[in-house]
Amino acid sequence: MKVLVLNGSPKGEKSNTLNITKAFLDGFSADTEVEYITVKKETIKPCMGCFSCWSRTPGECVIKDDMQKIYERINSADIIIESFPLYFFGMPSQMKALTDRCLPYMLPYSGNVAEDKEASFHELRDEAMHEKRLLVITTCGYVSAEPMYPALIKQLDLICGNGNYTMIKCPEGELFIAEKAERQRKAYLDSITEAGREFCENRCLCDETMKKISKPILSPKVFGQCSENELVDSVCKLFGAFCTAVIEPTDINRDKSRNDKLNKVFEFSFIFKIKHRSY
């Protein structure tokens, strides 16, 4: 079995979402072939909307860039995993560019309507594509995933068809860079690995498993405390390093003057808060 992972995070290999994706793949059988493509490293030009892939060169994009290689990898894979964080209630721009360039897989629009359709809005050109499985693994920095994903889910439903893909939504993505909640983090990743084992065997996840891995790792209150404390620590370290490097008072009471200035900077850093971040 071949698995293609499309890492759509702008953070590349440092993506927090990728931690979940790798934990999921830990549940797959040892003979599984896994290939990773870091989307941000590829040259993917935007779709020009020329519709050549529907007319002049049916099923083929006329733009020659790294998407040609990605088409080949998609065609040979049994399972495609899209791994990315939620950015502004959708997929990151690099991943969106790749998605737009997948239009050649679809047949031209012929006046059909989306209502009451389980299939994608545009039918697939190659019926063999129905044998593949698409899995979307995504994180967000919010305490709950459900209110944050309707726009992305609607887009994927129109592209793939409702029920034709599996989506794992992980809230509280900040926890994957925090030093706290290590025990809860590990327990969550263990459940993700179990889900991967189930998906490898059945090519789908049961409702019970989906419910289990969709739960927030921490309560909203505890998560808020952890994320704010982690942020303050990071900002203090950053400002401290900066001030140690550039603040060099020339008066006689050198140490006291520098410490006073550092304290002012640290006091200011506590005012700085970021409520929501995605990884």
Supply database-style keywords.
disordered C terminus; five-stranded parallel beta sheet; single chain; 279 residues; alpha/beta
Give me the number of helical elements: 8
Distance between the termini: 29 Å
Report the count of strand segments. 5
What value does the Rg take, in angstroms? 23 Å
Strand content: 5-15%
Description:
By secondary structure, this protein is of the alpha/beta class. Helix content is 39%, strand content 11%. The protein has helices spanning 16-25, 67-76, 93-100, 150-160, 182-202, 207-213, 220-246, 254-269; strands at 2-7, 33-38, 79-85, 133-139, 166-170. The protein has a 5-stranded parallel β-sheet with strand order 2-1-3-4-5, with helices on both faces. Helix 3 links the parallel strand 3 and strand 4 (133-139). Helix 1 packs across helix 5 (182-202), helix 5 (182-202) packs antiparallel against helix 6 and helix 7 runs antiparallel to helix 8 (254-269). It is globular, with a radius of gyration of 23 Å. The two termini are 29 Å apart.
Tell me briefly what this model is.
This protein is of the alpha/beta class and 279 residues long.
